[in-house]
Amino acid sequence: MISIGTSGWRYPEWRDGFYRGVPQRLWLSHLAAQMDTIEINSSFYRLQPASNYRKWVAETPPDFVFAVKGPKLITHVKRLRHIEDPLKTFTESLALGPKQGPIIWQLPPSLRFDRATIQDFLAALPQGRHALEPRHESFRTDAYFDLLHAHNVAHVVSDAPTFPCIEAVTADFAYLRLHGHDELYISSYDDEQLDEWAGKIHEWNRDTYVYFDNTMHGAAPRNALSLMARSTSATRREASPGRPPRRRDRPA
């Protein structure tokens, strides 16, 4: 299963491009008709009521998947320490049902790797798929990778010009965020770059979630659709004659 989408969907910059002629109230359903996943960003900034999640579920197809960004209260304010109460409040607010995919935890760039802190945080996470996106070079260490392996938590492979791209697959699924290779949140990926990432995804050979975060000038949806086309072509080539492509089953 390869799920490809964008990081968020509420971008006025997309109004005259991807959303041309589409009322704002239909932006999510318009995107969901063309992609099979999206990353919810608003949950990072403030606690979302369960009614919001139920609304988004109703606006998307049955097999759509939402990744959810963990709150900055946990990652940036408390810096992964003493997080039991806010973690419980956050996870209990989620009302996505079978459409819930991984929860992504984006760490602040100033947060260095500390084995005890990461170990305690991973141990506190509830059941389900979780992905961790560090933004400090100190996480490029086997001690970090070993902890993720032990808890089946995915390291987020992040492509960006301002923080390290640490390529490591640490769980039974992979998670990739493409923030813009040359200009953060801006630059578009060209054909050669998309081919390179498509090849890496194929080599990982496991369920993979991919989100384009180069949203500011509207490149994200274009790039997502281009990578989806490459993924579909690769799946068709992989299938032997007379044998259908692998099913895109959702994780249990």
From TrEMBL:
Spans annotated as Disordered: 229-252
Source superkingdom: Bacteria
SUPFAM superfamilies tied to this protein: TM1631-like (SSF117396)
Protein name, UniProt field: DUF72 domain-containing protein
